[in-house]
Amino acid sequence: MDPRVVENIYLLVIVTLVSVLQNVFFAQKVERECKSHHSHTSAFERVSCANRNCMDAYPTFLAVMWCAGLCLSQAPAAFAGIIYLLVRQQYFVGYLGQTSQSTPGYLFGKRIISFLFLMCIVGIFNYLLVRYYGSDYKDYVETITKAASALLLIP
Amino acid sequence: MDPRVVENIYLLVIVTLVSVLQNVFFAQKVERECKSHHSHTSAFERVSCANRNCMDAYPTFLAVMWCAGLCLSQAPAAFAGIIYLLVRQQYFVGYLGQTSQSTPGYLFGKRIISFLFLMCIVGIFNYLLVRYYGSDYKDYVETITKAASALLLIP
Amino acid sequence: MDPRVVENIYLLVIVTLVSVLQNVFFAQKVERECKSHHSHTSAFERVSCANRNCMDAYPTFLAVMWCAGLCLSQAPAAFAGIIYLLVRQQYFVGYLGQTSQSTPGYLFGKRIISFLFLMCIVGIFNYLLVRYYGSDYKDYVETITKAASALLLIP
């Protein structure tokens, strides 16, 4: 592949690789729990459930992040992806907590998925504007998006 | 990313976004059922099973749709994707029905996946023909594909 | 899409199609077991568990294979993908074996995922070298990668 293609996606690839590392970490947790204890214990069910919830949301996250990165710009999308991975780590660790009341819900990272979703819509809207009207707001939009992605850091 | 890339994928991105919205809708159904009732009831198991079956097939669907859109042409692939999402909605709602006899099987949308699969094969075959023989049937193939995608509407 | 894009991805698309066929094969196994026997038998749980483990790892595999193919070169990535599919088939069949002691673990194909992961890192590293120093080691790296991918055949 020529370098111009890699230039536009390498940040997304790095985030994808980090998410793969995290997946492997989750899977090893499941495997260790499965081997050390007998199955059907409470701890095994907890790890297995946390892993399954994370894996259920994984293709959605990948699809939205790559679409946002391809349609608009890759730096804010990759940044939001990193934040999502941190939230997922926190969710997974929180799921393994002691008290059964502390189990978080099925969904997590809603704000980040919404942000990436908005980026996709803005990117497609901008493309349609360029195609039918010829004015390109992409530079403004990218600047605003980069500034807005910093808002994700606010807890 | 320059607009020429977005031009070739924006319909696929739109279908992906719609599918993400549907995923979030499914996940919220699961979460609401999980919170309103206690776990391990019949309704919760039903929603959870329907959601898991849909999520199992989701990466396969995304991969086939994007390959078909990239290899051949995006309009029929996106159209088939929309039909698939309608079928999935119907499957999910049908799974939540009252009688336990009415639960549909594990697989759904076989016809649409097969259509997208055929599109991929035709696209690659066409590329190999162009490469080794130099004749380009792509225009004919695209016209036929667009006409054939209308056949998916027949129930 | 113009042929130059298809040229760089057609091997990856073929491997993706083969993996989709394998997914459909797994899903049909689950559906047949679900219909022929009543649910909650040992055989059904075994097939269902094998299928779920394979599906859990599927998005990770697809993401790593496509990243490796896009960042470095597609032939070794597609070759490693084929090997992964063979390992997955073996894992699935092994999971259905008679004795309950023979169930393999949760993870499989670690070596191939690691190889694809390394390919991604080398590709990004090479891109950064080209960008900041201007020397292109891609040809050497591709040759080495193609030779190294043959090592995956060693059991």
From TrEMBL, chains A, B, C:
It is a multi-pass membrane protein. It is found in: Endoplasmic reticulum membrane; Nucleus membrane. SUPFAM superfamilies: MAPEG domain-like. Pfam families: MAPEG. GO terms for molecular function: enzyme activator activity; glutathione peroxidase activity; glutathione transferase activity; leukotriene-C4 synthase activity. Required for leukotriene biosynthesis by ALOX5 (5-lipoxygenase). Anchors ALOX5 to the membrane. Binds arachidonic acid, and could play an essential role in the transfer of arachidonic acid to ALOX5. Binds to MK-886, a compound that blocks the biosynthesis of leukotrienes. This is Arachidonate 5-lipoxygenase-activating protein. The lineage of its organism: Eukaryota, Metazoa, Chordata, Craniata, Vertebrata.
